[in-house]
């Protein structure tokens, strides 16, 4: 009887003992889930972070946004990077499920860019024309191309912010598997208009993107809040910052970590001067550091006639 009591106590102690973290702020390995539309810029963040901390390894899984949110319940995923912040109700839900409250915050701003084939007859659209294309009511010779027809952040943005909650006509939508395939499809086919995160197409210092920009054009859209009527713009940094570009959006992180580990260290890095500079050099808008507009780019915003 005494032996059985000791054995039971030992088993209870082993079961009750929590697993200790295997990572620190500068070492170890963690997995994160990232909205696929942010892959180019987050790959750059990870590359520089790991170069600074050779004993640290961040393994990113790029997937549709809805799958990233589901991954918060996955024990192996430490953090997600998505296009909206976590709500208080979601925080309570994850706290009940995980035993800790996830933390979150804004990292930077980007935008949904519209791209057409280099030989397309037009690349200037009104917001009403874009909505009509998504609803299948447009007379323009373009069919939309997305990085999937459900679960992606670009699709959700189109429904929530372009169509104001209406569902688009899936019969007129072409679905690619990834953002990169959207741009490649537009480069190879006329008569289509692609919807893609600007970090895939907006960086003129990226050799691969420069090659694609020889085959596609970024569309002009009406300027929000400009003094003059008939002013159109593209997803440049200053117009994302000021919301003059109509399809701007944000990049958020959601972290589940109750110790000072690699997840917090990576968030701190992305919010630091170096991390924010990476967002800026990737032609996104940093959220935590002063951003200076460039006069040379401001001059590119101009009226479009006809």
Any key phrases for this structure?
three-stranded antiparallel beta sheet; 2 domains; ten-stranded mixed beta sheet; 306 residues; globular; 12 helices; alpha/beta; 23% strand; disordered N terminus; D-Maltodextrin-Binding Protein, domain 2
Alpha plus pi helix count: 12
Secondary-structure class: alpha/beta
CATH homolog superfamily of the largest domain = Periplasmic binding protein-like II
Q: What overall form do the CA principal axes indicate? A: globular
CA gyration radius, whole angstroms: 22 Å
- CATH fold description of the largest domain: D-Maltodextrin-Binding Protein, domain 2
Through-space gap between termini: 93 Å
User: What percent of the residues sit in helical stretches (DSSP H or I)?
Assistant: 25-40%
The largest pleated sheet is described as:
10 strands, mixed
Helix and strand arrangement:
Blueprint: H1 2-16, E1 28-35, H2 39-52, E2 56-63, H3 65-71, E3 77-82, H4 88-98, E4 103-117, H5 127-135, E5 143-146, H6 153-162, E6 174-175, H7 179-188, E7 192-197, H8 207-213, E8 216-218, E9 221-222, E10 231-233, H9 237-241, E11 248-255, H10 262-271, H11 273-281, E12 285-286, H12 295-298, E13 302-303
Parallel strand pairs: 1-2, 1-3, 5-6, 5-7
Antiparallel strand pairs: 3-11, 4-7, 4-8, 4-11, 4-12, 9-10, 10-13
Helix pairs in contact: 10-11
